[in-house]
Amino acid sequence: MKYSSKYIRWFEEIRIEDIPLVGGKNASLGEMYHELTPKGIKIPNGFAVTAAAYWDLVGTDGLMKELKDLMGGIDKTDLTDFALRAKKARDLIIGAGLPDPVWTEIQEAYRTLCEEYGEAADVAVRSSATAEDLPTASFAGQQETYLNIRGEQALREACAKCFASLFTDRAISYRIDHGFDHFKVALSIGIMKMVRFDLATSGVLFTIDTETGFRDVVMITACYGLGETIVQGAVNPDEYYVFKPTFREGCRAIIRKNLGDKKNKMIYSQGDSKHLTRTVNVSEPERKAFCVSEDDILELAGYGLTIEEHYSAKAGMNVPMDIEWAKDGLTGELYIVQARPETVQSAKAKDYLETFHLDGKGTILAAGKSIGEKIGSGRARTIKDVKELREFVPGEILVADSTSPDWEPVMKTAAAIVTNKGGRTCHAAIVSRELGIPAVVGTTKVTETVRTGDEITVCCAQGDEGKVYQGMIPFHVETFQLTDLKRPQTKIMMNLGNPDQAFSCSMIPNDGVGLARMEFIINDFIKIHPMALVHPERVTDQADFATIEELTCGYSSKADYFIDKLAYGVGTIAAAFYPKPVIVRMSDFKTNEYASLIGGQSFEPKEENPMIGFRGAARYYDDKYREGFALECRAMKKVREEMGLTNVILMIPFCRRVEEAEKVLAEMADNGLHRGENGLEVYVMCEIPNNVILADDFSRVFDGFSIGSNDLTQLTLGVDRDSVLVAHDFDERDPGVYQMISMAIKGSQRNHSHIGICGQAPSDYPEFAEFLVENHIDSMSLNPDSVIKITLRVLEMEKKLDLKRHPD
Questions:
Q1: Which DSSP category does 524 fall into?
Q2: Which single residue of 65, 142, 324, 460 could bond 338 by disulfide (Cβ 3.0 to 4.6 Å)?
Q3: Which of 144, 170, 194 is the last residue before a domain boundary?
Q4: Residue 506 contacts by C-beta under 8 Å, 6 or more apart in sequence?
Q5: What is the per-residue pLDDT across 310-345, written as a single tens digit (0 to 9) for each?
């Protein structure tokens, strides 16, 4: 311990219980410095200027009376007068300056810090507000931070400005909205050694998914240089997700990575006392590369879990955390520079489920990262200059390049928010979450495509990508009560292909994923034909070749591009439902669908009837696709072994013969996927009459079946469901189809194999679902929007059947 005084507390002296004295930010830094540095977490050293210094400052020379006069009767709806009063309050505090006793102690503490870090050490000067009578109140983001402060004169000026920032427009507005007395709130200052992240990277880490409240991931955002660009929404950062359960078991559990454009970075400004930082462009190669190594991501995830566990233990309950981190470009070390409890998702009630659904379609004007899972519509107000904010009408949709904390009084009245720049932890995203309104950030060009007065719809209910539609598209909201919802004996699973929807869908009561469609991930996230990645030299279309080169830029090999993208997509779904089973169907494109992928025309034959042609299992051991299937296998091996997601069950589609099944299993084994090893189960789609007729033989080769009612119906009835001429004869409720399904269920039961169904029929037809329950099928896999309704229906059916069997 160095020393303590009236106005100074070193981090090593501070605990979380000291919030009334030093505010939440400084109390947390002190708590971590004392408790967690012994556990390997690096916190830059520093000290807090206590709230007593603020009270002594505002109590000098009648300053308190002048401030009270300014705040008396302040009207936040009168933006001009509001801003004028706030500025006068700040000017009064800056003009008064720090009282000499306060400055003397700050000066002495700074000199002590310089003894540790060198002469004129660069420090961050950060606000940490607190309410005397409400010590648990959070004032995060309402006051100012000053970076790269060097020397005593610059430090004195920064401290005065920091105290004055208690009267920024947004801080005053925040206190009014939350009913806080302006003069029962004080400000403490944190002064800590700067980490040279201007020479490296920085970002924000959450130990919860910020959009859905899914608690089993650590979400990390990262950019080059100072992390202020992320908070300000000036860049679209890289994103990384680490799965907590298997990470704790020692797996490299990065389940997802999203590359941001990172166009700018904030760095130190050399030799300019007025501008301590500046923003510069990031080079093209740096923009196209992830800015943090996987080793650093895993180390940061470990930091996040340690911090969460510490705060949770103190609170006696799970406490997800919001953490700022930085990497020192001189030493290569990772530091935590701030941590506080996450207060939006973790506070939401979990006893009901609310889902938003668009009821129409429209032209997409812009797309970006979706914040929240709601839909909003209204007239747009495109703000290109801060002076235009006063023209904003409550209920409009705010459209801007980015937002800053000074915009918050207007943002609170918006129906939705859309920005050109920003990631999931930018200012616009944080505020929209707190307000519970939809936002789409990082669209890059929405201010060019949307003009003031345009009617638009902002949709964040379709996964990770949020969309801005032209016009007022109707939508509806469904609310389901989750309390006391019983589980039926028949397992109710889910059909899912979009990893972006996995976390939110996992909140719906379910028994796992009965069909994870690999085709969706390949089509929407990979986009390139697998064989075009193995043999790019065979791609004859030059435009396709150029696109392949662009998409795979930054990967050591084109094969790695496919493996990583597919593994992250499947890994996200598997993690969302862990440890429940997730049945992943290997690729089941038809030749015409494969041909539509980038580079696909160079590898696919033309077939008259692709529906019953070169698809499914037949491709996997054929030289035309064997190398592509190997990439699929390597991706699934990464999911199960590197990520530790052993809840993944693999499923083979359209397997015509038992001999074919054996060839496929041999191919899988050659690529490191041995059935039975490490608990690996392999199922087969039951969608060809031969799968039903030879159920005993297929049961010997596979661990379970999943009935594909679409293909089984068309092959039983001899109807091409894609043909407009005969599609009217396609009906899963045909007696012959019922007989086929009944035989399949009995065959699997006879061999003690799992059998489920993953077709659309149970969702569409109540009588079909009742037929399945009567035949004791093990599971039904349904589209997410049908799960609750069918669960309730199956519970009723099971009750009726039980009464029939036991009438007394």
A1: I
A2: 324
A3: 194
A4: 214, 576, 577
A5: 999 999 999 999 999 999 999 999 999 999 998 777
Dump pLDDT digits (tens) for 747-767.
999 999 999 999 778 877 878
Please list the residues that pair with 205 across neighbouring strands: 220, 323
Residue 302: other Cβ atoms inside 10 A: 18
DSSP per position, 588-641: ---HHHHHTSBTGGGT----S-GGGSS-THHHHTSTTTHHHHHHHHHHHHIIII
Contact 254, 241 (CB under 8 A): yes
Tokens of 459: 């949709």
Give the whole-angstrom CA distance, residue 310 versus residue 304: 10
Tokens of 607: 């077939």
Do 27 and 18 form a contact (C-beta atoms < 8 A)? yes
Supply the pTM of this predicted model: 0.87
Q: Provide the residue range defining the domain that includes 539.
A: 485-805
Q: What is the three-state SS of 61-79? A: CCHHHHHHHHHCCCCCCCH
Return contacts of 35-38, CB within 8 angstroms, 24+ apart: 35/310, 36/306, 36/307, 36/310
Domain boundary among 177, 194, 211: 194
Tracing tokens 């996450």 back to the chain, one arrives at 342
Dist. CA 375–CA 369, nearest whole Å: 14
Signed CA dihedral, 164, 165, 171, 173: sign only: positive
In a domain? residue 3: no
The CA-atom distances, in angstroms, between 268 and each of 194, 513, 783 are 11, 49, 51
- Catalytic positions are 427, 758
End-to-end CA distance of the chain: 77
User: The domain that contains 216 carries what CATH number?
Assistant: 3.30.470.20
Q: Answer yes or no: do 328 and 379 share one domain.
A: no
Tokens matching residue 350? 């979990």
459-471 burial, b if ≥16 CB within 10 A, otherwise e?
bbbbbbebbbbee
What is the Cα–Cα distance from 232 to 401, expressed in whole angstroms?
Answer: 11
Same domain, 282 and 431: no
> Is residue 598 situated within a structural domain?
yes
324 Cβ partners below 8 Å, 6+ apart?
202, 203, 204, 205, 227, 336, 337, 338, 339
With the C-alpha atoms ordered 339, 344, 347, 350, is the resulting torsion angle positive or negative? negative
Q: How many domains does the chain contain in total?
A: 4
Alpha-carbon torsion (65, 69, 74, 80), positive or negative: negative
